[in-house]
Amino acid sequence: MNSLQISGVPGLPEISEGDNLAEMIAAQTELRDGDVLVVTQKVVSKAEGRLVPLDPADPDAKIRLVESESARIVRRRGDLLISETKHGFVCANAGIDLSNVAEGFAALLPLDPDRSARWIRDGIRARAGVEVGVIVSDTFGRPWRNGLTDVAIGVAGVAAVVDLRGTFDTQGRELEATQVCVADELAGAAELVMGKAAGTAAAVVRGVPKEWLRESSVKSEIVRSKADDLFR
Amino acid sequence: MNSLQISGVPGLPEISEGDNLAEMIAAQTELRDGDVLVVTQKVVSKAEGRLVPLDPADPDAKIRLVESESARIVRRRGDLLISETKHGFVCANAGIDLSNVAEGFAALLPLDPDRSARWIRDGIRARAGVEVGVIVSDTFGRPWRNGLTDVAIGVAGVAAVVDLRGTFDTQGRELEATQVCVADELAGAAELVMGKAAGTAAAVVRGVPKEWLRESSVKSEIVRSKADDLFR
Fold first, then answer.
1. Which H or E run contains A153?
2. CA separation (Å) from B28 to A78, B8, B11, B78, B189?
3. Strand B3-8 vs strand B105-107: parallel, antiparallel, or unpaired?
4. Residues A139, A165, A162, B156, CA torsion sign
5. How far from chain centre, in Å, is Cα A152?
6. Which among A82, A92, A99, A84 is positioned nearest to A40, based on CA atoms?
7. Does A173 sit within 8 Å of B103, measured CB to CB?
8. CA distance A213 to A156
9. What is Dmax (Cα atoms) for chain A?
């Protein structure tokens, strides 16, 4: 593996509940076996009907919504809430987002983003006859670093984490901790060609090593267990 | 901007103190104006002579070294230390690393990775006559997500954070918080073509939007200030 190509998928129409995202994406771009398709959470949530009314005139309404979508509030400062969602993601406002959503509505995270990724993967297979990996991405902050990056909240057919432990470095010494979260790196790379305001909600990564294309899950591989969490 | 190409730079020899990294990289790959060159911390530290002896038979020696490289210990569990380095990075073991380093030595982080990036950028300009952005990358963990990802610890000639606030979404509504840490996403994308064991210590990203190519600094744009840190 020595080269990757990342391309935005332009021309997706506005997405509504019940839309077949896989079909709509496959109609806009020619996918090949082994491609990894990254789809942003916003369009997945819209296709899955995860919009709820939110009164913009009621300042407490969003806070109540965040609380109802959270398993636990991690930090609170002013109207910023960092919470753990029911999926186990720690992020701002339980992943609830008002941008690129009709006035008076908020988009919630998909109920099971790994399942969302599998649906899209299966749909691409059925529509286009190709076997792709799919990542559902969302935009999260980080505790000690400014700026947001896109990460994977669901995967299908592509590894969330690649374990390089047990391989050897150039000195012949066994590598220490080198479990690489390739799904987050792929999601972030895809963000670079999408842009928040451009309305490009999907991107294709071509050239991913074949050995990364396997069944996987964000829930089982990326979400850190309570026992391993030093920051709660 | 709709497509990016990411390519590893193969064939770099083993790096020693005093080596001219810019020249060695420019000799291995044809760089163009506007490319972003990502160089891993390990070879930068080696070129800058940031190796120190570390007795592998003394189990406390590494802990003492981590403490001496840290401004503050953030968490400690067993022999895992999460600390804040003198640069303000919060990471495991103050970024000290034994892999791909000669037996009996440890690699420390560069003293000023933004300056390291500027040196490489200036060296590429002098050697190859092209104007590139440079990111010095390192591999960090995250508090709530398994797996490591590469992030930027130094930049020159490329934005660390791109502020998309004040632009408008597809509904004509002003976007909320969308400061995107493109330097971390570029560093992570580069990691995907490098691989920990492959000995590929640099990668080139081609196709980055021209407006991202500006003076910047990880220290001033990415390192979160104490006042904004909810997790110390």
1. strand A149-156
2. 51, 10, 7, 42, 20
3. unpaired
4. positive
5. 3
6. A99
7. yes
8. 9
9. 63
- B80-127 per-position pLDDT tens digit: 899 999 999 999 999 998 888 888 999 999 999 999 999 999 999 999
**Lowest mean pLDDT across A97-101, B181-185, B191-195:** A97-101
Summarize pLDDT for A53-91 with one digit per residue, the tens: 999 888 799 999 999 999 999 999 988 899 999 999 999
Q: For B144, which of A90, A102, A178 is closest by C-beta distance?
A: A90
Structural tokens at position A106: 């908020």
Residue A152, domain CATH: 3.30.1330.100
Residue A177 scores a pLDDT above 50? yes
Same domain, A144 and A182: yes
Q: How far is CA B134 from CA A146, A156, B154, B159, B194, in A?
A: 19, 33, 8, 10, 16
**Domain containing A88: what range?**
51-109
- Give dist(CA A74, CA A218) in Å, integer: 21
CA distance A212 to chain B (A): 11
Instruction: Give CA–CA dist A82/A93, Å, rounded.
Output: 6
Please answer whether residues B74 and B89 qualify as being in contact, where contact means their C-beta atoms are separated by less than 8 angstroms: no
Asked which of A109, A127, A153 is the last residue of a domain, the reply is A109
Contact A206, A8 (CB under 8 A): no
Say whether A100 and B171 touch across the interface (CB within 8 A).
yes
In this structure, chain B runs to a length of: 232
The residues near A60 (Cβ < 8 Å, ≥ 6 apart) are none
Contacts B172 to A, Cβ<8 Å: none
Read off the DSSP letter of residue A210. G
| For residues B145-172, average pLDDT | 86
The total number of structural domains in chain B stands at 2
Residues A109, A202: Cα–Cα separation, whole Å: 17
- State whether B156 and B199 are in the same domain: yes
| Residues paired with residue A137 on neighbouring β-strands, in sequence order | A40, A152
Domain boundary among A88, A109, A130: A109
Are residues B38 and B56 located together in one domain of the fold?
Answer: no
Nearest chain B CA: its distance from A149 CA (Å): 6
pTM attached to this predicted model: 0.95
Co-location of B16 and B123 in the same domain: yes
Q: Based on the domain organization, do B131 and B26 belong to the same domain? A: yes
A164 contacts on B by Cβ (under 8 Å): 195-197
Average pLDDT over residues A195-216: 88
B120 with B164: CB under 8 angstroms? no
